[in-house]
Design a protein that fits this description.
about 100 residues, alpha+beta, 4-stranded mixed beta sheet, 4 strands
Length: about 100
């Protein structure tokens, strides 16, 4: 890929719950031509992400503008890139919610 997207999501496609949720976000992004990438941890070189398979499988990882976010922080970054979910990102950052 000549110009990788600014925001890339690493997820476990072997997990039915993870796969369903991330595929939903990927389809939403694709339908709107959003510059997002979605990578199955079982099909990529994890050293590019700086994580091992065990850690990658435990929590969501999002690489945004060169910075790696993990867990809930990763969801907040991903949601902020998706117009329909920006409200969830703002809500998730509120004290007491985060």
């Amino acid at each position: 890929m000549a110009n990788p997207p600014e925001t890339r999501t690493l997820y476990n496609a072997d997990c039915p719950i993870c796969n369903a949720e991330i595929c939903h976000y990927a389809a939403y992004a694709e339908a709107r031509a959003l510059p997002l990438g979605f990578e199955d941890l079982n099909r990529v070189d994890l050293s590019d992400w700086g994580v091992n398979a065990e850690d990658a499988a435990k929590r969501l990882h999002v690489l945004h503008r060169g910075q790696l976010y993990v867990g809930f922080d990763a969801f907040l970054i991903l949601w902020a890139q998706l117009p329909r979910y920006r409200f969830a990102a703002r809500l998730g950052r509120l004290p007491g919610v985060y």
